[in-house]
Amino acid sequence: TGAPGVGRAMARHAGPRLPLIVKNLVPTLGSVFDSQRVTTTAFFAELLNSNVVNDLILLETMVDNLTGRQKDPCLLVRMLALRGLGNIASGSPDKVRKHGAKLLASMVNGMDDKDDPQNLVALEAMSSLSKLLDHLEERDVQSMLLHIAIRIRPFFDSEQPGLRQASIVLFGNLTKFSHGHCEVFFEQILNGLVTLLLHLQDPRPEVVKACKFALRMCGPSMGCEGLCDMFLNHLREERSLHYGEFMNNVCKHLMQSYPEMLNRLISTNLFYFKSSWVDIRAAAPMFIGFLVLHVDEEQCQQVDLDQLISGEW
């Protein structure tokens, strides 16, 4: 179990001794040895999962020290620091708001980490931010809403299922903060809509579950009661989905409410004709078929047939 296991045990059993232990460990965060920085960061991250740091007035020190690890040359240290900051949501939820701006900045910096080839830091930042969001000040989140939504969008199609899941769940959680920024965020929902609907056919069940959650969360912001009801009723976590029938009805509502979106929706679907996932590749032309089926004749004239016919299968 290593440092996290020790952190859990000490949070439970070594309360009064922790301030001295933490004080003695802080200097190792500046150690020249990666292993020492990793171990101490992992230990601190696990301590933050417990309210004991709050009781012993250690929270401020640990937040400052983990925030200071953002530029650490070791990727694992940067990742564990974000995990620790995210753990405040379970260890000391009532203190998240106080440190909100700093925590939010850390998560956004983590998503923008330039030296993260496997996107492990970004994954940790997205997962941690999802945990923190319920406890953050609304105005803090709204100031970063658009930046985060745009930043996480490419991860929806990542080859790594963990990144697909974390980014889609975070997107769903962000919609809670979209009122007051409805038009701007509505544009982000439209940008992600085709992707979320197609990934209901994702090969990984945890990604399908994330898409169901995100679409249920997006429904109320879409200004279409029929669509919102469909997402809430058909995309319940435990309910199995008849995908073809569901998409037929979704497209009917989309074309009744947003007929001017036809070409945009078709273009996005064409991109997925080359998807590496066979079920998503199959879902895209079906999606287009249902859109064309439900659009009125006048709008249908605007479909770029050359683009459609040349879509590579």
From TrEMBL:
- What is a single cellular component term in the Gene Ontology annotation? cytoplasm
User: Superkingdom of the source?
Assistant: Eukaryota
Which InterPro entries is this protein grouped with?
A: ARM-like, ARM-type_fold, HEAT_Maestro, Maestro_heat-like_prot
Spell out the Pfam families in the cross-references. HEAT_MROH2B_C (PF23227)
Supply the SUPFAM superfamilies for this chain: ARM repeat
The segment(s) forming the Maestro/Maestro-like HEAT-repeats domain are 63-310
Q: Which PANTHER family does UniProt cross-reference here?
A: MAESTRO HEAT-LIKE REPEAT-CONTAINING PROTEIN FAMILY MEMBER 1, MAESTRO-RELATED HEAT DOMAIN-CONTAINING
> What is the recorded name of this protein?
MROH1 protein
Organism of origin: Thinocorus orbignyianus
